[in-house]
Design brief:
Layout: H1 6-18, H2 20-32, H3 34-38, H4 41-46, H5 69-86, H6 95-116, H7 125-132, H8 141-151, H9 163-166, H10 169-191, H11 196-217, H12 224-230, E1 232-235, E2 240-243, H13 245-252
Antiparallel strand pairs: 1-2
Length: about 260
């Protein structure tokens, strides 16, 4: 390999400093940023946005520092229909509620895979793949549909965001550590000759610990259904009114 010589670098410096255009660009980019420095005023004239469809002016949702884009996309699909149907303002479906159950289901899936691969060495590609990232935020359409069908959806006002749902890095780090520890427990149990009933009972104990951790990290949702059964107050474009729970839950069923 030919190493860079000092004389060559000096030549690059000299060529750069000899070009006055580079100096002007340097001043603009270093003070304003590269993209802002490269922006042309004419581009705003040439790219005036014109749309043929008018969408609802409801507030933009924000997944913040989490990997819930797939979840937000699905919930917003239902949300827009509800907003149009009931003329709602500032209405969102709870992303944290779906996020909780997603973490719960992924944890169970991971533990089941640990049991299924207990006869494989830790160096096997499948086991290494499982232990590398026991769970994470990402997902896809069929996964979110399964969550909706099993656990339903609730308004965000009933189940709001928490720090862990809006910024999931710490949650994932601790949950993955717990799952790896649980994997070792289950593998050791199977290696000792325990039967499937004993292993499943132990898995349920471990899931209880995970459930407790998730509930403490998000929030207790025990009273969510009770809140829905009483009433849901909704602000409309015309006036504030109460939407009876039966009407709401009956119409919510069309999305599930």
């Amino acid at each position: 390999m030919n190493a860079i010589q000092e004389s060559f670098t000096d030549k690059l410096f000299a060529n750069y400093e000899a070009n006055v255009k580079y100096q002007a660009i340097e001043n603009a980019a270093s003070h304003n940023g590269i993209f802002a420095a490269l922006e042309r005023r004419q581009s705003h004239v040439d790219n005036t946005p014109v749309f043929s469809l008018d969408l609802t002016k409801d507030k933009v949702t924000n997944q913040k520092a989490s990997g819930r884009c797939w979840m937000f996309a699905a919930l917003n699909t239902f949300r827009h229909k509800l907003i149009l149907q009931y003329k709602l303002e500032n209405f969102e479906l709870s992303q944290a509620h779906t996020f909780f159950w997603d973490k719960y289901e992924k944890s169970n899936w991971f533990l089941e895979q640990v049991i299924a691969t207990a006869d494989q060495d830790l160096t096997s590609r499948k086991v290494k793949f499982l232990l590398q990232t026991p769970q994470q935020d990402g997902g896809q359409w069929d996964m979110v549909v399964s969550l909706f069908e099993k656990y339903g959806v609730v308004p965000k006002s009933v189940y709001p965001e928490s720090v862990s749902s809006s910024s999931s890095r710490e949650l994932n780090a601790i949950l993955n550590k717990l799952l790896r520890q649980d994997a070792q427990i289950l593998r050791d149990l199977l290696a000792s000759g325990a039967d499937q009933a004993t292993v499943q009972a132990k898995k349920e104990d471990l899931l209880q610990e995970i459930f407790n951790f998730l509930a403490m990290s998000f929030r207790d949702f025990h009273h969510v259904n009770l809140t829905l059964l009483i009433a849901i107050k909704i602000t409309t474009t015309k006036a504030k009114r109460a939407l009876h729970h039966k009407n709401f839950t009956r119409n919510m069923s069309i999305f599930l």
